[in-house]
Amino acid sequence: MRRFRCLIAVCCLMGIAPFVVAAEPVNVGILGFDNYQATEYAAFFNNPKAEGELAGLRVTAAYPVTSPDYPMSAEFTAKWQAQMLALYKDDPNVKPVEIVSSIDDLLSKCDAVMIWSLDGRKHLQQATAVINAGKPLFIGRPAASEPQDAVAIYKLALDAKVPFWSCSQHRYSPGFIGMRSHPEVGKVLGCDVYGGFTKEVPDADKFTRPLHSIETLYTIMGPGVEKLSCVSTTAVEVVTATYRDGRVATYRGVKEGGVKYSATVFGDKGVSTAGIYGHGIPINGIVPTNDAYMGYGGLAIELAKFFKTKQVPVTPAETLEIFAFMQAMEESRAQSGAVVPLQNLWDAK
Fold it and tell me: Are both 151 and 246 inside the same structural domain?
């Protein structure tokens, strides 16, 4: 190392540009991949032509885990494993993802971990092993299936000083996150968010069904919900959320009829649609559809930044407020639409 530094110094004194040694890639492991997004992000990170933020990462290993209580978990795992192994297989410069047989083996082959297992009830146990190993961690939607498990994971990470975060990919859809500073909208005063609310889902998903749309609401409005009420029918879930500063947001969970994921945003300068999931910011009310699709690309970029810097882009308090929001939805529904205050899960940890 000393001889290397001396060589660099001599080159500089002689006016010769020293050679550049490429930084070692950040090796990322995948824990569970019955969620197809695991393969999508492996494709982003292992792309030999990746540029910018997406360059310098590599998915090295993946550990398959299945849930007997989750329909088609084993079938999905086999399907996405085949697709993952096929990524860039004709490129001699790309090493295939190694399928390992244990969490310990996975942790020995990576610098950071993504959990993509579908059954959120297993995430606390899975995250505990990763956090105890000191590996930076991201959990794909949902962080957990219940608020208490989400709180436990964040507490473990905080106590161990391990960077950890979780979010839906909807947070980084360009048209949604672009509403925070849309010149035609100005300061956001409220929004009406809408998306699907599937009637029949596995037990593991029942609590977190509205997570994509609630994450969109928080992406546009930010945290600070004080109370909410939830009206539930066979056709729809309608939530009215009141912020501490007096702003109001609504969520419409569609059970019957056509489903799209978007929002109408109200600001001090104007009103605009948030566009279409995966596409850019509407201009003069016109939603772009010929632009580059960014369904997973936005989150891929944020994950790349996180794995390189270890800086968490979404605070624990905000993510746990989203869990408190869904918890208050459940309580309001059980009380026939009563107004329910949100619990501060983060401070109560």
Answer: no
Is residue 58 one of the residues assigned to a domain? yes
Encode pLDDT of 87-129 as tens digits.
999 999 899 999 999 999 999 999 999 999 999 999 999 999 9
pTM of the model: 0.91
Same domain, 320 and 178: yes
Q: What whole-number distance in Å separates Cα of residue 95 and Cα of residue 88?
A: 9
**C-alpha angle 52/56/57, rounded to 5°?**
115
Is 14 domain-assigned?
no
Integer angstrom CA distances of residue 152 from 52, 123, 131, 288: 35, 10, 12, 41
Please, are residues 105 and 61 in contact by the beta-carbon 8 Å criterion? yes
Distance CA 166, CA 39 (A): 18
- Are residues 287 and 275 in contact, defined by beta-carbon separation less than 8 angstroms? yes
Total domain count for the chain?
2
Indicate if the alpha-carbon torsion angle 85, 87, 92, 97 is positive or negative.
negative
Token digits of residue 320: 């746990």
Give tens-digit pLDDT for 339-348: 999 999 988 6
Contacts by 18-24, CB closer than 8 A, 24 or more apart? 23/56
Residue 345, both tokens: 């899960």
